[in-house]
Write a structure and sequence with these properties.
Blueprint (H helix, E strand, L loop, with lengths): L1 H19 L4 H23 L5 H22 L4
Helix pairs in contact: 1-2, 1-3
Length: about 80
């Protein structure tokens, strides 16, 4: 679960940041990429600190759904 959900969270975090920052498109894209590069290893390593998988899923799935909703509200079209 650390690999797919960690990647999804970092990618969606970058997408949300790219849509919601009040900068130019190029600056927003660069900030989103950099956030994803920082966020993925942190989420991946933190996923192994949570012992029961149910607790991990209870943390990662709502966060992923929240980021999907924010990205869609920002204008993201998958």
């Amino acid at each position: 679960m650390a690999l797919p959900l960690g990647y999804a969270l970092s990618a969606l975090g970058g997408v949300c940041l790219a849509f919601w920052l009040p900068l130019s498109r190029a600056d927003n894209a660069m900030a989103g990429i950099l956030l994803g590069l920082i966020l993925w290893p942190v989420i991946f390593m933190a996923s192994f600190a949570v012992a029961p998988i149910g607790r991990l899923l209870a943390l990662l799935i709502p966060a992923t759904c929240l980021l999907i909703a924010l990205a869609l509200l920002g204008g993201w079209r998958p």
